[in-house]
Input
Amino acid sequence: MEAPRSASRFLPRKAFDTLLSALRDGGYDCAAPVVRDGAVVYTRLQAHDLLPSGISIQQAPGHYRVEFTDSPRNFSWANGPQALKPFVFTASEPLWSVRRDPDGELRFTEADTSQDPVAIIGVRSCDLAALALQDRHFLGGDCVDPHYQARRASLFLVAVNCSHPSDTCFCVSTGDGPTASDGYDLLLDELDDGFVIQAGSSAGQNLLERLPLASPTGKQLQDITRQNLHAAECQARRLPPGNLEPALFANLDHPHWQTVAERCLSCGNCTSVCPTCFCYRELDRGSLDPDRSEHVREWDSCFTQGHSYIHGVTIRAGTDLRYRQWLTHKLGSWHSQYGRSGCVGCGRCISWCPVGIDLTEEVAMIVGGAS
Amino acid sequence: MSLALHGPAAAEIIACKQESASIVSLTLRLSDRALADRFEFQPGQFNMLYLYGAGEIPVSISSDPSSPDPLVHTIRDVGRISHGLVRLRPGDRIGLRGPFGRGWPVEDACRRDVIVITGGLGCAPVIPVIDYVIQRRRDYGRLIIMQGVKHSDDLIWRARYDAWAEQPDTQVLLAADVGDRQWNGTVGPVTGLFKQAQLRTGNSMAFLCGPEPMIRACVQQLLEKGLPPDRIWISMERNMQCALGQCGHCQFGARFVCRDGPVFCYADIRHLFGRKGF
Ligand SMILES: Cc1cc2nc3c(=O)[nH]c(=O)nc-3n(C[C@H](O)[C@H](O)[C@H](O)COP(=O)(O)OP(=O)(O)OC[C@H]3O[C@@H](n4cnc5c(N)ncnc54)[C@H](O)[C@@H]3O)c2cc1C
Ligand code: SF4
Ligand code: SF4
Ligand code: FES
Output
């Protein structure tokens, strides 16, 4: 599908730095994908840091390998274990603290939520879709999460359309990629010699206008159209179509839950890497000062024993019940809660599962439609 | 409207009452008087109570909603945080967020018979309902209170049950799995009380609270006696961290118990109620 390209410009590769400089001049820290410990992760760039080029990523169930090629491209790979989630909903953060005065009174202070603006370079379409879902969860109800809200408001998103999906990607079948349709400030399409760039917000437009760039040529536009089509066509994995909530809840006793449980380690990797998982636990972190305590939240997972513990009972003691909770929630009750499935087809839970459990296969076994 | 959503407000314990060996009622008052003036709650709602340095737990408000200051919470010592809370003394401070959740539909029960069935400490969340009905006795039909406990020693508030039994058109039925020598209630499970209950299911509303197996058994009895599923209301417990519909712990299928409950209409949850794993 061809997106409207009326206001697009061409950013030559050697001028990419001017984009980073313009962002820094606009007050943003820049975070971009770099390779660390064998995986691509977003890291804050120091001034003059270059984006790595030639990264290629092989992904398969239980498998993730970074290789380097001599390609000049910066984004010819699909994704790393983290999406935008750590930027908006961090793995651990203080919510409030309390001081106990000599008279015994407790003085509570909500944690500071202020955030420095950050521009994230190389955001994928599935990441934007996941962000929109987390927005619905943390900001859409009666109760707005002030921590998420502040982090969210500090973001400037430079997206890039995927040119090299991994074998684990299935965003086409969830309707979330591989090209971004909205939710970004700037959007890039990468070619060997540079980027076609367009704005998706007024902040993005203002920034783009500050860069002295020419329009792309007709050939360049044709190339990216072809590239986007190819990225969509190469995806072989898919989820069964439609709202799976009724079918999943009609199959709560399906024997396959037990079959998956025999392989699943209940490690929770899938929920950590999933860009839409939102569960957290709260706890007090004591300090050396007995009259101060800090109350924090940390990511939690429905695969832990404590997640469903109520005094004397663990509601989901068995792995079969935990896997069923994850799948019936992610692909089922999300529809009732947020109007769509909680899966954006990023494939992370497939690659990062140590035993290579693939939700697209498991759900097809349970609701039918195995490919 | 909940107050102090994201961080607790300080509250002072002004009285502690040992109700039984493991149950204590804490009477408490918000330190911020302006907040206390604005604090209102519905029967069946709960607060998150914070024990200094340890953490928060959800606890129903067991006092009368028509006088929300001071508040009473009745707490059973079952684990880490509740153990600390029941040991507090007058003058000690805790933190409080709330009130949260949807309570009992007491107004919809107007002009109907009200059946209150509880097990264990399950009575705490429905005490405000009983208070509410008794204060408006003429607006309601027959009041039937059925309470079951494991051991007769676990029955707290005997005097209150006695006083309620004196009210017009009010039936109080008590059952203990194990009764001591002075026990004059029924011996056996709470379902054994249905034989004596003067139920008129045609125009009744039932409010249930307690361990889920007990609720399941009682709901079964009510349905068999002809009470429609949309007139059965249940208070549920699930692990709760935030009480804001955000931490995900209390999910029951698509519902968040902290926000959409803890009181649910049985008709809305029967497809999952009693299902292992939810
Ligand atoms: C809506 C609601 C109303 C409640 N009302 C009352 C009441 O009026 N009186 C009363 O005594 N108890 C009530 N409870 C139960 C009370 O919350 C638990 O007994 C308490 O959380 C146990 O915590 P603990 O640290 O002492 O126990 P532990 O066994 O050490 O529990 C560890 C943690 O698990 C979680 N947890 C354990 N049991 C429960 C539970 N039943 N519900 C939710 N989270 C749990 C808590 O986070 C707790 O800190 C209510 C629970 C809910 C959900
Ligand atoms: S369920 Fe798996 S594929 Fe779907 S969004 Fe989460 S991590 Fe990605
Ligand atoms: S499905 Fe895989 S990643 Fe998820 S908990 Fe089980 S073993 Fe871990
Ligand atoms: S307690 Fe956190 S979502 Fe209900």
Notes: Chain A has a mean pLDDT of 94. The two ends of chain A are 25 Å apart (CA to CA).
